[in-house]
Amino acid sequence: MHCPFCRNQDSRVIDSRTSDDGLSIRRRRQCTACQKRFSTIETSSLTVVKRSGATEPFSREKVVNGVRKACQGRPVSDDDLAILAQRVEDSIRGSGSAEIDANEIGLSILGPLRELDEVAYLRFASVYQDFGSLEDFEAAITALRADREKAESQNDEVVDTDEVGVTE
């Protein structure tokens, strides 16, 4: 880290603090040459490897824009899209890898989008998974229905606590 005052390359860290969101670290430094103090903010970078082999920094905005197209005409707000993009980024960062394939980002989008809106999920999946026939749509719809029925049957098995008698 170069000192912004004298361009010396040597500095020492006086204090380190994580940001409120936990995604960056603020470091207070002191130059060993001129003794002036300055702050740096350090963040981890996440690089996306595209199909062509090109790399670019991860962008939540690209996730939102891609999903927004699938959500056109659906009851999905910009806040919902921002939360979805945050969930996708969190799951990708949770993998611990600094480089991630673009394909992995698409897979990370499918789960949260499925929970958000099933129609938007089908639209996104049809492009992302390259549906080529009606049978591909039918298979995806059948899987959605099976998952919904399974979730509903699990919810029916949950005991209602209001019906359980509690003696005092």
Description:
This protein is an alpha+beta fold. It folds into two domains: 11-43, no CATH class; 47-153, no CATH class. 46% of the residues lie in helices and 19% in strands. The protein is built from five helices and six strands. The strands form two sheets. Strands 1-2-3 form a three-stranded antiparallel β-sheet, with no helix packed on it. Strands 5-4-6 form a three-stranded mixed β-sheet. Strand 1 and strand 2 form a beta hairpin. It is elongated and about 70 Å long. It starts with 10 loop residues before the first strand and ends in an 11-residue tail after the last helix. The model is unreliable at 164-168 (pLDDT under 50).
Give a quick set of tags describing it.
168 residues, alpha+beta, 3-stranded antiparallel sheet, 3-stranded mixed sheet, 5 helices, 6 strands, 46% helix, elongated, ATP-cone_dom, RNR_NrdR-like, nucleotide-binding
